[in-house]
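Hey,
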Amino acid sequence: QVQLVESGGGSVQAGDSLRLSCAASGRPFSPFHMGWFRQAPGKEREFVVSMRWGGGSIYYADSVKGRFTISNDNAKNTVYLQMNSLKPEDTAVYYCAASTVGFFTTSPINYQYWGQGTQVTVSS
């Protein structure tokens, strides 16, 4: 069983930066895509960004393009989300997820493994 553990959330002011980490453990880890989603209170889980594991295509939601950057360290089975110029509307629980389907997808139902989530709160 694959386990994903996020860290790095917190409370910041608008304009600040945060870096989230997601460490994978368990059986040999070779997803097709790794992604980040977020969920604000009363809202559905929202796609943020996804990347092809091992390098290649990266897809960002329009709402974070130019401000957020995803990266990974294959040797550490870890994916990162650098979040700059944070806005109050970025406030949410952020989830790391891994997909084994063989195509890019923004739908949460196509991601088989999920972390427990980490809270990000941005105040104005």
